Amino acid sequence: MSVLVTGGAGYIGGHMTLGLLDAGEEVVVLDNLSTGFDWAVKEPARLVVGDMGDADLVARLIEEHAIDAVAHFAARIVVPDSVVDPLGYYLNNTAKARTLIETAINGGVKTFIFSSTAAVYGETSSEPVSEETPLAPISPYGRSKLMVEWMLEDASRAYDFRYVALRYFNVAGADPEGRLGQSTPRATHLIKRGVQTALGMYPSMEIFGQDYPTRDGTCIRDYIQVTDLIDAHLAALRYLRDGGESIVCNCGYGHGQTVREVVDVVKRVSGVDFKVVLSPRRAGDPAAIVARADRARNTLGWRPTRDNLDAIVRQALDWERRLHNSRPGREP
Ligand SMILES: NC(=O)c1ccc[n+]([C@@H]2O[C@H](COP(=O)([O-])OP(=O)(O)OC[C@H]3O[C@@H](n4cnc5c(N)ncnc54)[C@H](O)[C@@H]3O)[C@@H](O)[C@H]2O)c1
Ligand SMILES: O=c1ccn([C@@H]2O[C@H](COP(=O)(O)OP(=O)(O)O[C@H]3O[C@H](CO)[C@@H](O)[C@H](O)[C@H]3O)[C@@H](O)[C@H]2O)c(=O)[nH]1
């Protein structure tokens, strides 16, 4: 039995591949390398370069590798990008996911883990949101993901098929052993941009919006360390293989930091007082979004252990330094 990891050459999928290998699983990665890197797929995982919307390819992989579970990470992921290219996002994140789910079910795969997102909630108060909070995504990205949740829900009712959808909050940091980190080209994520600016790759960084209804006027997010997030996936896989019912779980720590607070941590940890430019709000950004993750703890038995923003920033900085000093496109 093997696990098929779509998007396994990307940031989070690459860490999932490491986590699965560490747990002794056999792994096949399917990735079109649009934002991922072949070197991010560590041996003995097998990388197949191709598109998740290629039903013939996926069907062949399921059969050849006796796939019993799919962990589906492949997606386009940039919120403001989705505002300017919504149909591109619906094609990749929604339509191709439909093909993937159908092919998995036709191939006899009964368990599926889906990378969902806090962006399905849209505007919320500063209070932590539970999975019961009404869903009202405000970006095409969030909608493209919510539709996949709905397809999974309906498919699990109609067929012999169970899933766990994990709604990630803001994923950050790197493998604590230094084997991998976030390598996405042109990344727009706050911590990544911060450490890149600290390393001199940008002359300054922007803070988007200072008039949000938050404690210092900048947006609040719940930053979850990537290895803790992968532990939730490994728990979800065990849960599904033990016969657990389909569920949706938030993955976050239950408290948030403002953009200014994060920038201050990056400056302190890096020791660089880089220039910050105050810019207007960015399209598609909710003011605050923080997780209530009791369900992941109680149902999956998830036990996060890496809730420490200083350590997260240090991991991101260490990885960025290695990336920066490596040859373009080559393993750091
Ligand atoms: N990074 C975050 O903070 C965050 C938060 C919530 C949810 N997520 C979700 O987690 C998942 C992984 O995100 P990431 O940060 O690792 O992004 P990433 O861009 O690093 O990884 C995505 C991977 O998917 C691949 N891919 C994209 N379209 C594909 C296709 N059609 N066929 C095959 N491969 C394809 C890319 O090449 C890349 O390797 C995504 O589904 C994203 O929506 C991420
Ligand atoms: O240079 C920057 C980058 C970001 N921000 C702000 O920082 C916050 C966080 O932004 P970012 O790191 O880009 O994350 P989000 O837009 O919150 O989205 C991330 O987190 C979502 C879940 O909450 C995921 O679904 C997305 O895939 C992932 O990109 C937002 O208020 C941004 O406006 C800045 O002020 N300056």
Automatic annotation (TrEMBL):
EC code(s) of this entry: 5.1.3.2
Which reactions does this protein catalyse?
UDP-alpha-D-glucose = UDP-alpha-D-galactose
Keyword Isomerase applies: yes
Listed GO molecular functions? UDP-glucose 4-epimerase activity
Gene3D superfamilies per UniProt: NAD(P)-binding Rossmann-like Domain, UDP-galactose 4-epimerase, domain 1
InterPro entries given in the database record: Epimerase_deHydtase, NAD(P)-bd_dom_sf, UDP_G4E
Give cofactor(s), names only. NAD(+)
Whether Isomerase counts among this entry's keywords is yes
A Pfam family: Epimerase
Single Gene Ontology BP term?
Answer: galactose catabolic process via UDP-galactose, Leloir pathway
Q: Describe which pathway this protein belongs to, using the record's wording.
A: Carbohydrate metabolism; galactose metabolism
Q: Which residues form the NAD-dependent epimerase/dehydratase domain?
A: 3-252
Q: Which UniProt keywords apply?
A: Carbohydrate metabolism, Isomerase, NAD
Q: Which residues form a coiled coil?
A: none
* Family label: Belongs to the NAD(P)-dependent epimerase/dehydratase family.
Oligomer status and interactors: Homodimer.
Task: List the protein's name.
Answer: UDP-glucose 4-epimerase
Organism, by scientific name, is Roseiarcus fermentans
Upper taxonomic classification of the species?
Answer: Bacteria, Pseudomonadati, Pseudomonadota, Alphaproteobacteria, Hyphomicrobiales
